[in-house]
Amino acid sequence: MPENSTKCDIGFIGLGVMGKNLVLNLADNGYKVAAFDLDYEKVSALIAQDAAENQNQQPRVIGCSSYTELLAQLKTPHLIVLSVPAGEVVDQVCQNLIGAGIQPDDIVIDTGNSLWTDTVSREEKYRDNFIFFSSAVSGGEVGARFGPALMPSGSAYAWTRVKPIWSAIAAKVDSVTGKPIERSKPGQIVTQGDPCADYIGPAGAGHYVKMVHNGIEYADMQMICEAYHVLRAGLKLSCDEIANIFETWNEGVLDSYLMEISVEVLRHKEQDSDQHLVDLILDKAGQKGTGLWTAVSSLEVGCPAPTISQAVYARSISAFKELRGSAAQTLTGPMTQTIDEKEKQQIINQLHDALYCAKICAYAQGFQLMKLASTEHNWDLDFSSIAKIWRSGCIIRAVFLQSITDAFTREPNLENLLIDSFFSEQLSKYQQNWRFAVAKSTMMGIPIGAISASLSYYDSMRSAVLPANLLQGQRDYFGAHTFARIDKPDGQKFHVQWSSKDRNIVQV
Ligand code: 6PG
After folding, report:
1. Phi and psi of 151, rounded to 5°?
2. pLDDT per residue over 174-219, tens digit each?
3. Rounded CA separation 219/187 (Å)
4. pLDDT tens-digit profile of 64-106?
5. What is the CA radius of gyration of the chain?
6. Whole-model pTM over 0.70
7. Cβ neighbours of residue 333 under 8 Å, at least 6 residues apart?
8. What structural domains and CATH numbers belong to the chain?
9. Which residues are catalytic?
10. Residue 396: which of 107, 247, 196, 121 has the closest Cα?
11. Which residue has the least CA distance to atom 13 on ligand 1?
12. At what angle do helices 205-229 and 257-267 cross, to 10 degrees?
C-alpha cells in the first residue's frame, strides 16, 4: 500500500482501453494516479468512471491537461507509466517528458507491444534523461482492469520500485494449486497468491518474451479455428454443436481462456435474430505485427517455429478474400466423403487429441525460441517463472501452463518441451489420433496448416535421420558448398568435383 500524501504515486499517459483500465486497477489497489491523454475527453471520462466506481469518495485519479501538470502532480522521484501505441509515439512522449523537466532518477515504464530492439535502444538513448523501463502487459481490457500478466524488464533498481505496484495489480494464482484467483468487480482486490508478474531480465527481454507469448497466441488461436473449420465445413455441425464440443474440451487438458472465449463467440447471436454472428463475420484476419516479429525472429535465431509461422501465413492467406473466391470456382478439391454418425464422433475425438498435441508443439517452439534468444543476448531467462506468469491474466492462460511450469522446475535447462518426460509421454499417447485427424482433414480438403505443421515438427524432431544428406549433396553439386560425412571425424569437410569426368571426392 502506498504512503498517504496529497501528491500522486503514479503518472499515467495514454488512456485508451488498456490505459484506462490499468489506471482503475492501480486505483483499486490504493495508488493515487495522475492521468494524462492528448484527448482530454478521455481524461474526463476516466475521472467520471472513477467517481462512479469509488462512490464519490476521495478522488483516486487526478486529471492532467499537460506533461508539466502531470509531473507537478507526482511524488518524486517520478514514476510514469505509458500506455501508448508502439513505435514513434513512445519516443514522442519521451521527448515531451524531457521538455517538461523529467529527471534522471525518474522512471518511465513502457507497457505497449513495443518491438524488443526498440526497447533496448530506448534504454540507452534516454539514459541521461530518465530510467527507461519496460513492462509488456497481456490480458486485454478485462485483464488490465482486474489483473493482467506483466513482463517487466530493464534496470534492476527500477524493478525494486515497480515490484510492489506490479505485484498488487497483476493477476494471481493460488500458490499451492496454481489455479487463478478470481477478481472481477471494481473495488475488489486480491492480496494473496502468486502474482503473474516477475522480473524477466535486462532491457528488451520482457518485450521479447511478450512477443513470443503473442506468437504462441497466434498459433493457439489458429489451431482452435482449424478445429472449428473441420467441424463446421467438414462435418457440417452447427455453431451451437461446435460450441458444446468446445465447452466439453474446455473441461480437460485444453482448458484455456482462448477455448472459453471461442465458445462464447460461437454461441453469440445478434439481438432479435436467430443468426449466429460468427457466420456473418468476414473471414479476413487482421494483425498488428507481433506474430510476424516472432516468426522473423525464429528464422533469424535459427529456431524452428513452423506452427507459429504457419499461423501468421494463415492470417495472410485469409486476407486474399477475392483471390480465394475466384480460385474456389476453378480449383478442385477431393471427392465428397460420406461420413456416418459413428465416424463423426471418431473425428471429433481425434481432433481433440490433435489440438492438444499441436498445442504442445507450439509451446515447445516458443520456449525453445526464448531459450536460444536468451543465450544469444545473455538474458538468463527463467522459463519456469515465465510459464508461471502466463498461468493467469494473459491471453494464452491455460491449465496446461502448470505442466510447463512443472517441466521447467524439474529441468531448468530443458532444451525443448518435447523431450520433457510428461510431454513426451502425452505426445506418444495421443499422436495416433493426431495423425488420423490430419489425414481425415486432408482427405476432406479442409486446410489445417498449423495443426499439420505441428505434426511435421514433431516427426522432424523425433527423426534421428533427416533428408538433409541429399540436400547437402545438392548444395555441393551446384555451389561447392562441401559436406561432412558420417564415416569421417567431426569437422572434416568434403567436396565432389562434380564437373570433372571421374568426380573425385576431395577433403577441403
Ligand atoms: C495480449 C494480446 C494483445 C493484442 C495483440 C494481438 O496479450 O493482451 O496479445 O497484446 O491483442 O496485439 O494483436 P493482433 O492479433 O492484432 O496482432
Report:
1. -125, 75
2. 999 889 999 999 999 999 999 999 999 999 999 999 999 999 999 9
3. 35
4. 999 999 999 999 999 999 999 999 999 999 999 999 999 999 9
5. 26
6. yes
7. 445
8. 3-203 (3.40.50.720), 207-461 (1.10.1040.10), 468-507 (1.20.5.320)
9. 210, 217
10. 196
11. 288
12. 40
> Which atom from ligand 1 is nearest to the alpha carbon of 290?
17
Phi and psi of 125, rounded to 5°? -60, -40
How far the first Cα of the chain sits from its last, in Å, is 69
Going from the C-alpha of 471 to that of each of 15, 136, 357, 468, 496, the distances in angstroms are 54, 41, 29, 5, 14
Q: What is the distance between the alpha carbons of residues 324 and 330, in angstroms, rounded to a whole number?
A: 10
Cell digits for 49?
468512471
CA distance 409 to 365: 18
The type of residue at 170 is: A
Find out whether 301 and 376 touch, Cβ atoms under 8 Å.
Answer: yes
Ligand 1, residues at Cβ distance < 6 Å: 113, 138-140, 214, 217, 286-288, 290-291, 394-395
> CA 35, CA 69: separation in Å to the nearest integer?
10
CA distances from 315 to 283, 384, 388 (A): 9, 30, 29
- Give the distance between the most distant pair of CA atoms in the chain: 93
Q: How open is the CA angle 216-242-457, to the nearest 5 degrees?
A: 35
